Protein kinase domain-containing protein (Glossina pallidipes), 201 residues
Amino acid sequence: MEIASEGELFKHLRNNQRFDEFRSAKYTYQVADALNYCHLNNVIHRDLKPENILLTSSDDIKLADFGGSAHTLSNKRKTMCGTIDYLPPEMVDGRTYNDSVDQWCLGVLCYEFLVGSAPFESKDTQKTYEKIRRLEVHYPSLLSTGAKDLISKLLRKQSDGRITLVDVMKHPWTQQNMQKRNALLEERALKSRAAAASNVN
């Protein structure tokens, strides 16, 4: 793969504690796009988390670490794998699952981007499992209505109730924040060019 000079996204998340909505929306969109490509090619990632996402010098993501992934034409699996805080209910209960486990993980990831910790995180593994089974999610007041709406549509007990990855990319929260972010970047670029021009004059 191409060089990802900024390393693991996990490092940047810990340094910042959490990301703002503009940055979170961009990363969520790009991860959804990458996962959608995987699913179109019959690959389930199964271990989505900040440590398995790399950043390029242009602040774009690269999905990495496919050691736990599965290529399956049937789209059915039963192996329990991944990271405890990110496990979907069907894996916790040992049931057969499909590629929608990646949507669940994306919901956990989006929450962690915005809050700085995973929603089901606990020091005790069994408590984590119970929180996942009960869908025990606390949405802090810092989360916007749009962010909560997207996360809640991904963190569904029933796998067929989770929105598609394409719908994640089209979700109003994702789109609006990406548009605002692009507008801010364009404004900064214009100011920078104006400053450079005035220095020349």
